[in-house]
Automatic annotation (TrEMBL):
The modification 4-aspartylphosphate is found at residue 53. The keyword Transcription regulation applies. Gene3D superfamilies: 3.40.50.2300, 6.10.250.690, Winged helix-like DNA-binding domain superfamily/Winged helix DNA-binding domain. Residues 2-117 form the Response regulatory domain. Residues 131-226 form the OmpR/PhoB-type domain. This is Sensory transduction protein RegX3.
């Protein structure tokens, strides 16, 4: 996923960009409000999320958020040291999708990015003609009926296999951390469940007859590699 990082501090931006890149994000760094707005032309320029710092040198971050929201529906996460409730409410009223207060935990920030991205995917699916379905090459995932097919042939999956595939398919190419997958699919902590995740990934690769569909990112987690149609 492409991510626009709006941050005037080059040292902060460099460190955060490195972390995001390790988790599968293609990061573009904008150092001012105007640079950010230019990067979003035309029609969002293919970005999946905007990470917007409010302390910008040329414009107030709230003003930038309002301008972004007028141009595009891309999810915006505000990042700021302003922790008071009124500031958060103001940001959300301007159209921000989430609000992260500095200093923040990197894992929490990544989880919030994935969360707003998934919400956008669900909203797009609900508003489209092909409601409730994800198509990835020859793979089709019917969310309401929990049915998966490859080239028109139905593949029988267990409940957890379907949940795992649907989670990864919501953001093809994005790396999902092992801890995040365990939390969202199994609703538990990482301890003692790691082997279960590996078994389910192997089973999906076998049942779908696509060994390369789910890629292991060593030391991090997994991502879905969208197959050709």
């Amino acid at each position: 996923m492409r991510l626009l990082l709006v941050e005037d501090d080059n040292h902060v931006a460099a460190a955060l960009s490195a972390v995001l890149a390790r988790h599968g994000f293609d990061v573009t760094h904008a150092r001012s409000g105007e640079e950010a707005l230019q990067a979003l032309v035309p029609e969002g320029a293919g970005f999946g999320v905007v990470l917007l710092d409010l302390g910008l040198p040329d414009q107030d971050g709230y003003e930038v958020c309002g301008k972004i929201r007028k141009r595009t529906a891309i999810p915006v996460i505000m990042v700021t040291a302003r922790s008071d409730v009124r500031s958060r409410i103001h940001g959300l009223n301007l159209g921000a999708d989430d609000y992260v207060v500095k200093p923040y935990d990197t894992g929490e920030l990544l989880a919030r990015i994935h969360a707003v991205s998934r919400r956008t995917v669900h909203e797009d699916a609900a508003g489209g003609a092909d409601e409730g379905a994800l198509s990835l090459g020859s793979v089709r995932i019917e969310l309401p009926t929990r049915q998966v097919s490859v080239a028109g042939a139905v593949v029988q999956l267990t409940r957890k296999e379907f949940d795992l595939l649907a989670l990864l398919a919501q953001r093809p190419g994005v790396v999902f951390r092992r801890e995040q997958i365990i939390s969202e699919v199994w609703r538990t902590s990482w301890e003692g469940t790691g082997r279960t995740l590996e078994v389910h990934v192997a089973s999906l690769r076998s049942k779908l007859r696509m060994p390369a569909l789910i890629e292991t990112v060593r030391g991090v987690g997994y991502r879905l590699v969208a197959p050709a149609a």
